[in-house]
Design brief:
Layout: E1 2-3, E2 6-7, E3 15-19, H1 24-35, E4 39-44, H2 47-57, E5 62-65, H3 71-80, E6 85-90, H4 108-124, E7 128-135, H5 159-183, E8 189-193, H6 209-222, H7 226-238, E9 246-249, E10 257-259, H8 269-283
Parallel strand pairs: 3-4, 3-6, 4-5, 6-7, 7-8, 8-9
Antiparallel strand pairs: 1-2, 9-10
Helix pairs in contact: 1-7, 3-4, 4-5, 4-8, 5-8
Organism: Amycolatopsis heterodermiae
Protein name: Oxidoreductase
Keywords: Oxidoreductase
């Protein structure tokens, strides 16, 4: 696989951890890195699927249990990681049509998509030698963080609103992590990416039959393959991109990887700092 027109460089001796790496964008990313010699750790909740994916990838691929909806599971996974990690790819995501809670009592989308990855990254950060890559979405553009009700306890629950909030949080986390890495004099980069519209098995649900039907039809007609969706993630992982950058398909929903601008609240440094402090308090991870 290439990223844009550039082949992925040799990855022999490198280690990549990919959350949600047993299917979709995560599996396609893992396959591309493994094909170039990387050791790939698939961090997934369903170990039957994880082991099957690792066997399919071959080489140095392996599966380890990780439930991002449980901080105890995140801590246990982090304890199993020995040695340096070249790439930590925060890829896994969740979307639900109704409000659900994680094992720790967080709204599930916020808990899995942001807080779980926030905790995982900070627990492993001393071992990361290359990059932290977080998969976001263009849904961040119209999203807003309501710090008075991050868990959707008082507002009427809106699935897309909750999902967009988590994807905005992913970008704010990336930018604040990059700022802190630079301040500490670290050479590690924090980058972000979005896959565009890709047919991965990840279901966007609103709870409204007509809207969900239109989304399913659009996926059949417009979506690119998981391999196509993985290109921006691979660009953010091994490409010549700066820290704090955001990679996506050149043509919005599909196409070769290119850098693009974040928008809205994603560029607000004060909001990024506030989110970091709230996330530390909620997860107990600093």
């Amino acid at each position: 696989m290439t990223i844009g027109t550039t082949p992925i460089p040799d990855q022999t001796g490198r280690t990549a951890i990919i959350t949600g790496g047993s299917s979709g964008i995560g599996k396609a990313t893992a396959a591309a890195l493994a094909a170039q010699g990387a050791r790939v750790i698939l961090a997934v909740r369903d170990q039957a699927r994880g082991r099957a994916a690792a066997a399919e990838l071959g080489g140095l691929a392996e599966s380890r249990p990780l439930d991002l909806g449980s901080l105890a599971s995140v801590r246990e996974f982090a304890r199993t990681v020995d040695g340096p990690v070249d790439y930590l790819i925060n890829n896994a995501g969740s979307m639900t049509a109704t409000r659900r809670l994680t094992a720790d009592g967080f709204e599930s989308q916020f808990g899995v998509n942001h807080l779980g990855h926030f905790a995982l990254t900070n627990l492993l950060l001393d071992q990361v030698t290359g990059r932290v890559i977080t998969v976001s979405s263009t849904n961040h553009r119209k999203a807003h963080l309501d710090f008075a009700d991050l868990q959707w306890e008082r507002r009427p629950y809106r699935p897309f609103g909750a999902y967009g909030q988590t994807k905005l949080a992913n970008l704010l986390f990336t930018r604040e992590l990059q700022r802190r890495l630079e301040k500490a004099g670290s050479s590690v980069l924090a980058t972000a990416a979005h896959p565009g519209w890709a047919a991965t098995g990840f279901t966007m649900t609103t709870g409204r039959r007509v809207v969900d039907g239109a989304l399913a039809l659009g996926t059949r007609l417009l979506a690119q393959s998981p391999e196509g969706g993985a290109r921006p993630v691979l660009s953010a992982t091994v490409g010549d991109v700066p820290g704090g950058s955001f990679s996506g398909p050149r043509f919005g929903v599909r196409g070769p990887a290119a850098l693009e601008e974040m928008s809205g609240e994603a560029l607000d440094d004060d909001i990024a700092s506030q989110l970091w402090e709230v996330s530390e308090r909620l997860t107990g991870v600093r």
